[in-house]
Amino acid sequence: MALPSKESPTLQRSPNTIRGTVSQTTPQQDPLIAKDLQKGQYIGIFAVAIALILAVGFFSRKVEYALLFATTLSIILIVSFLTL
């Protein structure tokens, strides 16, 4: 089994090749970036978490206490890891 002795042809770009260009808009002007939605997301997540804890607590107190403990411990660990 012999290897081909001919070199592979060089790839040439066609004139229709898409080239990356740097956008002239700054991140503050970019219409694809959502602005001022982060607070609403945090409020929604917090409300869903509270609703979940209340719904579980309605059926079982022990599970509610376990969820509250796990949530509190998670928040404490996240804050401690972010500040280190």
Spans where pLDDT lies below 50 across 5 or more residues: none
Number of E-type strands: 0
Radius of gyration: 28 Å
Fraction in beta strands: under 5%
Main structural class = mainly alpha
Mean pLDDT: 78
- The DSSP helix count reads 2
What is the N-to-C succession of helices and strands?
HH
Describe the structure.
The chain is mainly alpha-helical. The chain has a domain at 60-84. The chain has two helices and no strands. The chain has helices spanning 38-59, 61-83. The longest helix is centred in the C-terminal third of the chain and has 23 residues, at 61-83. It is elongated and about 75 Å long.
What's the short story on this structure?
The protein has 84 residues and is mainly α. It has helices spanning 38-59, 61-83.
Question: Layout of helices and strands, plus pairs?
Answer:
Elements: H1 38-59, H2 61-83
Helix pairs in contact: 1-2
Essential attributes:
single chain; 54% helix; 84 residues
